[in-house]
What does this fold into?
Amino acid sequence: MARGTIVPTLLVLLLAVCCATTVVHGKEWTVGDNKGWSFGVSGRESVFKYNPSMHNVVQVGEGDYNSCRVSGPSRTYTSGNDHIQLAHGGKAFFICSLPGHCQQGMKIAVAA
It folds into this structure.
């Protein structure tokens, strides 16, 4: 490699490493933004932000999560800015219970 290309090459590599690295500070995860709900979320507190006139958040069991229906014990949140504490080591399942929303992907499983 020519001497004049070493520094630019190192800068590009450093930039690539910085862009590929994700650092998480804290245990609060926001679910729902301009990109919708996303998967792979884990943490002790989940924050759901949404328009409460168009959506809700319902904490359901795994069976209801898989079938996109609310048939068993559940808890419904409707504030549009819901801060939900999760039990350490557990798993929680959330759906939007408005017709068709869960079936279109508005559901998420969270490992605490």
